[in-house]
Amino acid sequence: MAPLVVINVVGLTPRLLAHMPNVAKVGAAATLRPVLPAVTCSMQATLLTGAMPREHGIVGNGWYFRDLGEVFLWRQHNALIQGDQLWTAVPGLRTANVCWWYAMGAASDLLVTPRPIYHADGRKSPDCYTRPPSLHDDLESALGTFPLFNYWGPTAGIASSEWIIGAARRILERERPDLMLVYVPHLDYDLQRYGPDGSEAIAAARAVDAALAPLLAEDAEVVVLSEYGITPASRPVDVNRALRGAGLLEVYTQEGMEYLDPWASRAFAVADHQVAHVYVRDPADLARARDVVAGLPGVDEVLDQAGKAKYGLDHERAGELVAVAEPDAWFTYYYWLSDDRAPDFARLVEIHRKPGYDPAELFMDPRDPFVKLRAAAALARKTLGFRYTMSVVPLDPAPVRGSHGRLPDAAEDGPVLIGPFEGDAYEATDVKELLAGLARRRAT
Asked: Which alpha helices (H) appear in 130-261, and where do they start and end?
């Protein structure tokens, strides 16, 4: 039988599907009800396991690793997902993973995942990890080096999606796996930058649709789905600054810069779009921390243990409290009280050192008249092989116009499932078995 190709078009909603004729031809679009938090890592883990976060343990795009005393986002090891996954649900299938998360160490036969090179002299080069290793040279020969998930300039992120789609096509044509999962990230960028309702969102949807056309034309059975929808949001909520003001969060200082001190803090938050995990060291501080967070404008609810259980989020990795933003609000990770005390990584695209997600990375600082000139100078240093810093990210989050993470208030703003299915609505926990059912036909 033809391979089964599952394409994850991040941010795809029924509203945007109206501007994507190639994707719409795949089939009827069913409502897909996400889990809380509706963010990439939690949703992908649910789609792969058929389980809630309480079971698979992926409580967000990152969390506080209590045994290490560190906040880490965007870890890559598949072993972080607890429970059986789609890769082994149907014995005997040959599988391929093209940029779905938690790929490293997964049981897929073929895989491609972003893995930049961090050079010894401090430079960073975009690249990818593949299995088998020979796949890397083949893809680089055919497509060039894996591009950075770039946010600025005329390509504005579509280059990485086009490379991923090209890699999927090459693997499909040369390797013919029975099951292949593909992650296409482009809609994430402009929908957060400009919001989901403007002309920029429509243009992004059309760009992705055009880029996907060659893959959709391959000899394959196709399923298209998404993880979440992005909704209008323009109110940043500084949850860590509030906890610091209440005397619960502590920082330490090096070279005049302040750093979050999770070991010493009585309470702090790991901000993740519209959800924030609040870690409270001493149960005696729970009530105080809850009152501080619940009293912030833009906070919809604060979940305690019973509240987390209601949403299937009661896993040991979750915060003692979980804050959910109002529909037009989202959480910053900021903890400093004066910008001249901000750490140097705050002005960079630095997804691993920041103790929370930072959508301000989507922008060059609009208050800096020389920002593009400084970016060009940094790029020139990189091209010449010198160390460089792209210190252009604003410390003011006001430009952000879209977010996600809370459960959608309307199906039109939520994710979709498109394929040979009869229902008009599915839970995210249903998807693993739906895909396994299609895959089983390839094993008989």
From this structure: 134-143, 158-175, 187-194, 199-216, 239-245
Q: Distance from first CA to last CA of the chain, Å, rounded?
A: 10
Distance, in Å, from the CA atom of 24 to the CA atom of 27, rounded to the nearest integer, reads 6
Q: Are 163 and 135 in contact (CB under 8 A)?
A: no
CATH topology of domain 4-230+405-442: Alkaline Phosphatase, subunit A (3.40.720)
Which token pair is 92? Answer: 């005997």
Domain ranges (residues) in the chain: 4-230+405-442, 235-400
pTM exceeding 0.85: yes
Q: What angle do CA 224, 200, 390 make, to 5 degrees?
A: 95
Rounded Cα distance between 110 and 132, Å, is 7
In this predicted model, what pLDDT tens digit does every residue of 142-193 receive, in sequence order? Answer: 999 888 655 554 445 688 899 999 999 999 999 999 999 999 999 998 999 9
Tell the CATH topology of 235-400. Gyrase A; domain 2 (3.30.1360)
Condensed to tens digits (0 to 9), the pLDDT of residues 296-314 reads 999 999 999 999 999 999 9
What the block records as the tokens of 274 is 């519209």
Q: Using an 8 Å Cβ cutoff, are 155 and 361 in contact? A: no
* CB-count burial class (<10 Å; 0-12, 13-18, 19+) for 287: exposed
At residue 392, the pLDDT reads 81
How far is Cα 308 from Cα 165, in angstroms, rounded to an integer? 37
Answer for the pair 229, 11: CB distance below 8 angstroms, yes or no: yes
